[in-house]
Amino acid sequence: MQVLRCITARSRSHQYKFQKQWNQIYKCNLSTSCPEIKVSKSPVLIDEEVNIRVSGLKQGQKITIQTYMKEGDKTFGSCAHFTADCQGTVDTCRDQSQGGTFTGVEPMGLFWSARPTPGVKPGRLLKADIMSPYDVTIAVQDDFKEFDSLPWSDNLPCLTSCQLQRSYVTSGVQRFPIKINELQGTFFTPPGPGPFPAVLDMFGFSGGIIELRSALLASHGFASLTLGYVDLPGLPQREHHLDFNYFLKAFDWLASHPKVDPNRLGGVATCVGSGYQQFIASRRPAVKCLVMINGIARPFGSKQTIEGEVVDTITFQLDKVKIVDGFVSFREMFQPQDVTPTCPGWRHGAKILAIQCLDDQSINPFNLDNYKKHIPDEFKLNFSSITYPGAGHMLEPPYTPRCLASYNKISKMYLLWGGDEKHHSVAQKDSWQRIIFFLDQNLRKTNVNRTEAVTGL
């Protein structure tokens, strides 16, 4: 009897161990046949990093992770090649991409390397409804697949997929379309009652109203008015007919808004918008700081007298444009003597941060050196600059696709902006951090060290 019990016990023990081992094998086989993909967080702000992790793969399995998103008539996508580790996992924050639209360890490479999908014309990715997120599909394909051979559709076939929402606005940000007399723009306010530090936000001659930067600035605590000034109903179509009083009225409106602290006002501008911001800062002592991104310091338009002072201007010299790779480059349009600053934005003590990309195919980087030469010694400590090799003109917030070229409806040309994807992505991330720091130091904090506030370091 004791022997029988012993044999029975051993049999049951063996059966239990066998069943346990079988369950483990079954689970392993089940997991390898059903890969799973997860993101660290969703929704996220456009400038937040996201970790993507794929599990349930076979050890050493080769996969392609692709992203796909649609905005209006444009579809953008990216892809990267990974090999699963001994646990059957891939982690984009840890693992190296071996091919695709980027290579190396790039946690956000799947986002900054996105490009128009096959058959879609080159262009700039702009959110039509800034208050809604981008819906990004992240999918896993077996084996290494090249960008042009991947499926690009809303219900693309894959091993597994998930959705990620990326937004320019955090919860509580409010958007107010502005149309007061001729003044047109969009005003964004951060969550809360205010009053807030505020910036006037301006882009170049792209036309319409571009809201992405102001929305993101509001998500970081700054009220922001993004100003339209050409190619809108009731406004000029070209720079020749601009009345510079319009820009002063926009700034005065912002300064008087009940949700804005009139003692904490600044500006952010890209391209020719920088010249108009220089003009405002030269006439309004309330401007505490100004960020110029790939800008030119002299306003475009016709010569005019504003508030008793003559404003010298600059106009486009289209006879000097060049065709590069089938696109129009404005890089060589101006020589140093053409853009001597005539609107001294520094004269009331505004701190200025100038950002210049060295592969800018629209604004020649020499404009930055030319600008520096004209700053009087007593204001030089208020000025700082940074340059980015390999980056192009269209410097956007982090982890957004580089725009190499796009159609400009004002000039009616396909314009070349420049920049290689990797260097441009580095510049977008670093410059955005510096912009936020610079605005923080000059519009939010008090008793700030002058050098620290200017350099953003």
Automatic annotation (TrEMBL):
It comes from the Eukaryota. Pfam families: BAAT_C (PF08840), Bile_Hydr_Trans (PF04775). Residues 47-179 form the Acyl-CoA thioester hydrolase/bile acid-CoA amino acid N-acetyltransferase domain. Residues 243-444 form the BAAT/Acyl-CoA thioester hydrolase C-terminal domain. Gene3D superfamilies: Acyl-CoA thioester hydrolase/BAAT N-terminal domain, alpha/beta hydrolase. Coiled coil: none annotated. GO terms for biological process: acyl-CoA metabolic process; fatty acid metabolic process. One of its GO terms (molecular function) is fatty acyl-CoA hydrolase activity. The active site is at C271, D360, H393. InterPro entries: AB_hydrolase_fold, Acyl-CoA_thioEstase_long-chain, BAAT_C, Thio_Ohase/aa_AcTrfase, Thio_Ohase/BAAT_N. Belongs to the C/M/P thioester hydrolase family. This is Uncharacterized protein. The lineage of its organism: Eukaryota, Metazoa, Spiralia, Lophotrochozoa, Mollusca.
